[in-house]
Amino acid sequence: MLVIDRRGDPLIHSHFRSLGTFLRRGDLLVVNRSRVIPARLVGHRTGGGNAEVLLVRRHSSGEWEALLRPARRLKPGGRVDIAEGVSVIVLSGPLPDGRRRVRLECAALSEADALRRHGSLPLPPYIARQATAEDEERYQTVFAREDGSVAAPTAGLHFTPELLSTLAAQGIDVTEVLLHVGPGTFQPIRDPAVLGHKLAPEWCFVPPETADRIARTRAAGGRVIAVGTTVTRTLESGASEDGLLAPGAREAELFVTPGYRFRVVDGLITNFHLPRSSLLVLVSAFAGRERILRAYREAIRCGYRFYSYGDACLIQ
Fold first, then answer.
1. 3-class DSSP assignment, residue 191
2. Which of 5, 33, 211, 219 has its CA 20 to 30 A from that of 52?
3. Strand pairing partners for 176?
4. What single DSSP character describes residue 245?
5. Distance between CA atoms of residues 245 and 239, nearest Å
6. Domain boundaries of the chain, sorted by first residue
7. CB 222 within 8 A of CB 24
């Protein structure tokens, strides 16, 4: 774990098991309890040919937003047969972000059972292999309880029950929010002007007890430490100008860029991110672009592992 001090103190090389060394009694860790679903379905198009469906987001109507491959060959009314009795029906042409409306048909099974039997975990695109049985366990955090993400909130992957017990004994508390991670997390910034990038909204929820605990933590002088960029976006999307966090469900549409004034988050635990990603822009906004670039150069020099299964950094 690389520790980055926003005040400009030197970088510190440590290990994640020593996280409590850098936190204080009264600090509050906020984690994302979303669970990755086996949203990747592989089948055959009516008329022949392989096809792949990535279910991105379920609507109350029962329809899904999905990414299809090969998209041009799957027109409205098209069908992808996944297994006997399990099919995906294409309902719409491309939406503005390339997604399509689809329906998962599985009359003899619930949707959850159909995905468990015939789907696979959608590993990030830079992991160029199929998900394995080991990924089924490794690509879920210890906080994961509610199905809905197509990618893990990876900062949470570093935590173990043993570490959480150690932190609790130090007087460091944990509370939860929910944000279902979509593929927009991995969309590279292609617009030469960063502000021209459109970040896909993600559904999130702040429980009332979480908003209350954050308010009490701040009133007592404790710090709010976001475990991951998903938590950061959830908290900051629901914050007023004076830092009050509104509970409830909303769309996290906030694209955090340098110059943004953070209203809730005092510290951030995160992984090392891809170049030209919205995640790298967010951490640059939090710690300062030049400080982050210096830290990343040091991390590369020292052999830190980047991305989803990589090492962590604590920014405070």
1. coil
2. 33
3. 31
4. B
5. 4
6. 2-36+136-315, 40-119
7. yes
- Residues 83 and 41: their CA atoms lie apart, in Å, by 10
- Provide the token pair at 128: 């160029």
What is the mean pLDDT for each group of 10 consecutive residues in the chain (316 residues)?
A: 94 98 98 96 91 93 94 92 95 89 92 94 82 88 96 96 98 98 83 80 96 97 97 96 94 93 98 92 96 97 93 97
Q: Report the alpha-carbon distance of residue 180 to residue 202 in Å, rounded.
A: 6
pLDDT of residue 65: 95
The answer, yes or no, to whether the previous bond of 70 is cis (omega within 30 of 0) is: yes
Fold of 40-119: Thrombin, subunit H (2.40.10)
| Residue 25 confidence (pLDDT) | 97
Q: Name the token pair of 2.
A: 């690389």
Bridge-partner residues for 40, per DSSP? Answer: 54, 120
- Which residues touch 68 (CB under 8 Å, ≥6 apart)? 51, 52, 53, 54, 74, 80, 90, 100, 102
Give Cα 278 distance to the centre of its chain: 12
- Cβ atoms of residues 22 and 316 within 8 Å: yes
Fold classified for 2-36+136-315: QueA-like (3.40.1780)
